[in-house]
Amino acid sequence: MTGVSNEKIFKKSSVLSSIFKFIAKISAIIFISVTVLELILRIYFYPSHDFLRITEDDPYKWARLPKNANKIIRCKFRLSFLKSKTFHYRVQTNSQGMRAEKDYEQNPSIPVFRIICLGDSITFGLDVDDFYTYPAQLEQILKKQIGKTATVEVINAGVIAYSSRNCLVYLDKRLIKYQPDLVILEAGFNDALPMISGIGGFHNQILKGNVETGWENIYSSPLNLARVVIYQQPIFRVILYGAFRILVHIWAKSGKNLDWKTIEEKDSSLDDNKFKNAQVPPEDFENNLRQFIWLSKKYNFRLLFYIPYRTPILYRKILVDIAQENHIPVVDFSKSLGQYGMNELLANPVYSQFLEYYRLRLGDDFLRKNPSFLITTDGLHPNAVSNRIIAEKISEMIISEKLYLSSER
Fold first, then answer.
1. Residues 242 and 300 in one domain
2. Averaged over 321-344, what is the pLDDT?
3. Exposed e or buried b for every residue in 59-98, given b needs 16+ CB within 10 A?
């Protein structure tokens, strides 16, 4: 009897020992991965920040901004392997989960020219204060230009990591009730990103359907649910995000001048097969854009396409072709910023005042050696300077195309 009891105790002890060994191995792998990742990131200079706190799960759109948030986000920018500077930016959201101080009326009590800016972290304004996002700057500019003839509201509906699919669902299910006169869609870069073991693009599979047939929620699918659980683990997101930042900063260091058009044309591939494993493959991307057009006709609003930096040529071509076919204005980041160098930015008092913010934090020597950071926060995302320039280009397009003279509803 005692022998049997001892055998049970031994088996139980072996099971516990195996579990502890497994946990120890996983912990060691995670520790080594994070350590190696940190060393690589230090080599490539990067801003590390706690922006992962900004979003929360959403059963329809994969992620959303929390309501009534008022957070100070830390951004630690590494100037060299050992030297870094830390600065902060504020993210404030309203009760509707948008990056804004005020709420927006669904049925405005007075006539309003209302713009909804849809997009990813570029529209959201990663690494910049609320006031320096391009939607906030666009509202300031338009109020001065057409404020006497129209009340202007520009809604920042950008959410980190969104693709055209997420934006389409967001507009159709949540935003259309705000009755926009103009919708600015910034898309293309995230759509073209590859899926990582099926996880990177799972948020495009949360809903089946489209704007014409309606959406079917498949969030409860065991496979999708497992992906959500895995992806939302902080350690996984840190590792995945860190790997992405390495790629971004390798790109950033390749930009030793501000000839953005030349840099972008290095990727001149128009081969669909290159993007067959993209989060949103080319044919789906085109279909999403056409669904935006269908919505615009149904709800009587105008469209404007904003092509972000480093959008692959194929996705840019799809955007431009559909825009030309449907008479939709287009603003291209690369073409808008291609004419600017440090001297041109400093010569303009408006831009120089924004640039001073980065000169104080990063220093002239770092900016001379890494000119990509004159107009981006990390080699990819626009900073306050380029957000201002883009806002000016979009406002010029709105005025020249008379987009503020919306049709009667």
1. yes
2. 87
3. ebbbbbbeeeeebebebebbeeeeeeeebebebebbebbb
